[in-house]
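Technical note accompanying the year-one report. For the benefit of new consortium partners, we illustrate the data format agreed upon in the data management plan: each record pairs a sequence with a structure-token string. No post-processing was applied to the example shown here.
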Amino acid sequence: MESLFNKILATIKDNSACALATVVASRGSAPRKIGAKMIVFGDGSIQGTIGGGGLEKLVIVDAQKALRQKSSFLKEYPLDKKSGLQICGGKVSIFIETLAPKKRLVIAGAGHIGLALSFLAKLLGFDVVIVDNRRAFANKERFPHADKVICDGYAKAFKRIPADENTYIVIVTHGHAFDTECLEAALHTRAGYIGMIGSTIKIKHVYGVLMKKGIKKSALKKVHAPIGLEIGAETPEEIAIAIAAQLVETLRK
């Protein structure tokens, strides 16, 4: 049991996901008792066992589906001649739980909106990374709750952040030139979400600059700009709520 949990921790630390299949109920003749566990990885490899044979093969397929859908579910498997799993009869219920790294939110811009959003993001369970090129803003005194605070040029800072599909990037800097710099850097990552604040005119200008630099229009279509759900937000706190709501919407979809 300890080795299984250590493997799960190592997998998540490596920024990968896995599924844990646990026998939670059984009736009749079942290959393993309640509590038996098996880890299933994205490539179909496993560690541990819930009984082997046809049942295990079905659970592996279902676990891979759970990983693709980023979901968890309880499923009952009949163990009878009709199912082809065994002829002794019985049923077994298995809970398949997807275990993935925490979502990471990179907030480029440590101003009023960035500060308000950082608090909301922590409440939502994100690891929060703050990036700003101003020492007076990017510091642990202002962001004691953040997991990481980087004070550096934006382009350099993004190179220090491993951004994959579990990474959400919010661009709310103190100038359109810095927004442009951040968006260019963000578009060269595999981030699952990229959003940028700004008016229609500013967004059009930033996009124009980036397209002249070789960024394709198709790449820009995945950017949420203007960022946030339309709720009539005006204050920094209200704008942060609108952004957080869009992050949740993207996460759940």
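Partners are asked to follow this layout when depositing records. The first strand starts at residue 18 and ends at 28.
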